[in-house]
Specification:
By secondary structure, the chain is mostly helical. It has helices at 2-44, 48-61, 66-78, 82-95, 100-112, 116-129, 134-146, 150-163, 170-180, 184-191. Mean pLDDT is 87; it is low at 9-14 and 16-20.
Length: 193
């Protein structure tokens, strides 16, 4: 009887310890997610140094964590460390190339470092991955306009106007494209909107 109860108790102990890591793993994942969200919120509220400390603490324990790498890329971007930001964008995009936000912020990074062709390609990727977010579409249109691709830019700005008629300068951008294509009557009407 003693051996049988000892075996049962030992079995229960082993089962309990086998289940415990799952609970700890879930709790750890929840803590990590909360920490990333806290860092994201700090960055959004212009507390760049606070966000940087949180992202770095995450990366110390989880060096390949994509959200923390992306967050650090945005920190470097906000600090005007465009080359460092680009290296981090490349790293995170190697793991998750289908995230339109990565392409969008990478486009901003290129644009601010005056690499307009690369910015256009990044915005184009963001637009291709999600053509329902007006900021993606409008940024792509601005790069097309900068490259004097008037007809393409016109189509893109029409999409922006469809998605978000109140988007800043969308009518001006669209009218500029129309004017450059000698569609003067339509350009004038669009300027007046």
């Amino acid at each position: 009887v003693f051996r049988r109860s000892s075996a049962i108790i030992l079995g229960l102990i082993l089962m309990g310890s086998a289940c415990k890591p799952e609970v700890d793993a879930e709790a750890e994942a929840a803590k990590l997610t909360a920490k990333v969200k806290e860092a994201d919120a700090r960055l959004k509220n212009d507390k760049v140094k606070d966000a940087e400390r949180l992202y770095l603490s995450i990366l110390k324990e989880h060096p390949e964590h994509p959200d923390a790498i992306y967050g650090m890329a945005k920190v470097r971007y906000f600090e005007k460390g465009y080359a460092d930001a680009e290296a981090l964008f490349q790293k995170v995009m190697a793991a998750q190339a289908e995230n339109p936000d990565y392409h969008y912020y990478r486009g901003h990074n290129f644009e601010l470092s005056e690499k307009f062709a690369e910015a256009g390609e990044s915005y184009k990727q963001a637009f291709a991955l999600d053509d329902n977010r007006s900021e993606f579409v409008q940024s792509y249109g601005r790069m097309l306009k900068k490259g004097k691709k008037w007809a393409e830019a016109e189509a893109v700005f029409r999409r922006v106007a469809e998605l978000d008629p109140m988007a800043v300068f969308v009518n001006t951008d669209l009218a500029d494209c129309l004017r450059e294509q000698n569609k003067l009557d339509e350009a004038l009407k669009t300027y007046m909107k």
